[in-house]
Design a protein that fits this description.
globular; 3 helices; alpha+beta; 73 residues; three-stranded antiparallel beta sheet
Length: 73
């Protein structure tokens, strides 16, 4: 599921591949994040090491950053 969510997040952010957002966020203080609940497609900007961010759609703490999903952090 993590790989599918990571692919969904890359597409939602308008990138062609995972390399593009990773390079963009490594030197930034925010990262794209996505809700990990099945069927939820909520995305937002989060701290790069976020793995329990708040989802405004589900009301749960299930938003994870792209860097965590990619195993960089």
């Amino acid at each position: 599921m993590m790989s599918a969510k990571l692919d969904e997040l890359v597409e939602a952010e308008g990138f062609d591949s995972l390399d593009d957002p990773l390079l963009a966020v490594i030197s930034d203080s925010v990262s794209p994040g996505i809700c990990m609940n099945p069927g939820c497609h909520y995305t937002t900007e989060v701290e790069p090491d976020q793995n329990r961010g708040y989802c405004e759609i589900c009301g749960t703490q299930t938003v994870t950053s792209a860097l965590v999903l990619a195993g960089v952090i």
